[in-house]
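Sanity check

After download, print the first record. It should look like this:
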Amino acid sequence: MRNEGLLQGKAVMITGASSGIGAAAARLFAEEGADVVLMARREEHLTALAKEIVEAGGRALAAVGDVTDPRDVERVVATTVQTYGRLDGAFNNAGWGTAGTPLHETEDDIFDRVVDVNVRGVWNCMKHQLRAMLDSGSGGSIVNTASVAGLLSTGATAPYIAAKHAVIGLTKAAADEYGEKGIRVNSLVVGSTLTELMQQVLEEIPALHEPFVGRSAQKRMADPTEIAQAAAWLLSDRASFVTGAAMPVDGGWTAK
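Expected structure tokens:
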């Protein structure tokens, strides 16, 4: 696991790391040589994943926290710097959404939670991550998980679509503001991916399976590791002239 890789020697923070894309990213980034800090709310899942990575020869630290709480984010960023000496990269992947409810029937508390996790969570993370990268003076790279719902209406609920549009906007704004400081900020326009949350949605609304698969040119859902591969490249030095991008990883969904 410690062979030279895309992320060799980099300290990388991953949110939403307890399952799905985040967990796949944790394993992959460690395989690619990164020292990873895993952030999510579910301590048991995080601890087990960190143990798995360490036993395979990687370096991983579990840091329980909620991205909607700026104090938690500040603590995890500080822990990363204290443990590994710096923060080179961050994959802000934590997200939450619902499906199937028309706008006029969506409760306000659902809107608040969707925006809080997907938008404020990214906001909280970038504020503290950018400060740590600026303090180090050596730049860095941030990747935020957006969605095809950040570019167009997908059948997801209106709050989720609005939130993912906002993630892309925050990404572009940060890329512009910090480019001269050597910090790159990009987003992933993710298509339908077979995560734990997606499986729950499909169990609740089986009819969504066909449109989620049918809109992709490849006529399938992504494996979480396929999304993680794109994030690893953006975080690596091989993407040194890529910033402000909303990079599709959607099986051709947005090509239509």
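If your output differs, re-run the checksum step. Summary of this record's structure: The mean pLDDT is 93.
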